[in-house]
């Protein structure tokens, strides 16, 4: 319950200091960062699958 109050207070302070537009930009930024992290997570599994299918040893091949 304390976490909910802290988040509510944080959002109120954001609105008070930056206004609606700045607060929404912060939420859009956080949303984009979370989506990007999810995509990177999925890509790591795709990379492993592709390396397995192609027979590439990732420890031996240090190109990326």
Describe the 3D structure.
This protein has 64 residues and is mainly alpha-helical. The chain has one domain. The chain has one helix at residues 2-54. It is elongated, with a radius of gyration of 20 Å. It starts with a helix and ends in a 10-residue tail after the last helix. The mean pLDDT is 90.
Helix-strand topology string: H
Uncertain segments are none
The share of residues in extended strands comes to under 5%
- Outline type: elongated
Would you count the extended β strands for me?
Answer: 0
**Percentage of helical residues?**
over 70%
Our measurement of the CA-to-CA distance between the termini, rounded to an integer number of angstroms, reads 44 Å
Number of helices: 1
Question: Taking all residues together, what is the mean pLDDT?
Answer: 90
How many strands, what sense, and barrel or not for the largest sheet? none
Features:
1 helix, 64 residues, mainly alpha
Write the layout of secondary structure elements.
Elements lengths: L1 H53 L10
Would you summarize the structure shown here?
The protein is mostly helical and 64 residues long. 83% of the residues lie in helices and 0% in strands.
């Amino acid at each position: 319950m304390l976490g909910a109050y802290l988040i509510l207070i944080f959002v109120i302070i954001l609105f008070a200091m930056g206004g609606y537009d700045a607060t929404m930009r912060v939420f859009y930024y956080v949303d984009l960062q979370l989506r990007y992290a999810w995509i990177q997570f999925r890509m790591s599994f795709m990379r492993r699958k592709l390396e397995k299918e192609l027979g590439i040893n990732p420890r031996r091949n240090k190109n990326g």
